[in-house]
Amino acid sequence: MGVTTFGANGEYADDGYPWDAVPMDSPVDEGLAQRGYGNQRSYPMLRANLRERTSQVMRRCKDANLPYAYCKSTALRLLGVETPEDLAGPGNAWDNAASRKPGRQSKRRPNADALHVVVRTASERRALPGVRMHVWNGLADDCVQMLANGICCLKPAAAWSSVAMDATMLQLIQIAESMERYGLATLDELRAFVEARRFHGKHRCRVALAIAKPGSASVKETELRVRLELRGLPEFAINFAVPGAAYDSRVEQTVDLALERYRVGLEYQGDQHRSDYRQYRRDRDKLGALAALGWRVFEVTQDDLNSEEALDRLAMRIMCVIAAQTGVQPQIARLTYARIADPRRAGRKGV
User: Which residue intervals make up region (Disordered) (predicted)?
Assistant: First the structure.
């Protein structure tokens, strides 16, 4: 694939650790942006938290000195993206119940404390304290990369595919969009990998990629978009530039999620939007300008994502805005992931 993992742009140059995670066989690619990689809208605090957790796992892997390739959540952590453990929370508790068969949740729950490694045959497995070995018969040499610190782990697409049976569907979507956002792999590259390989969870990956979209700024925005579409709302545009709206600097004003046809926008407000006064004033000015253009913008917080009732209310309010323009009776649906992944779904396109 020739992709560059984290550290390639100097992101971790000041960590104070004597290693980075640039693949040994992959030079730093200065043309990532031109090739469609990455999204600089991701929140700095989120990336800082990932960096801290990644550094801790890198130390553990270095100290363990295992002669195996790291996989699953360990590989994702080494690559610097979210893992299923990171994304477990009140919101995903609903996703667990909605997407898993009874009795299977405990089998899929990942072990956050173990280091996960992959081997090609069952005969290679052996018991090691703090290590979980997984067998992937279809593991090929081109799925593995050696990092500059001597640690061996799966490449981004293989690492994402390796958690297909551990993660919920929402988490698979979030991690796929994170890989695109952090410049690890485009969604098209993930699709190409899935179609070319044999592994458990291939169908789940296909469904996740049919829903995943490039351009999201955080896993929270991804979660908000997907969970609203599961309630029957049309497909949202991401990071939508509102026509005619601009700051004094002439920089265009955007909303995190938009239904342009109905002039509806959504803004996910993280803690920095409340703690940073300049950011707060900027948000107020933008919302006022958009309201003057006839846009209805809804602000959403983590508290809303934690509550099914709050999300139901939000979905109904958006439906009422749409109903006022279309005359269609507003109602909340309960759709499956397969349903919202189907491009033939009526009303999927909201822009």
Answer: 89-111
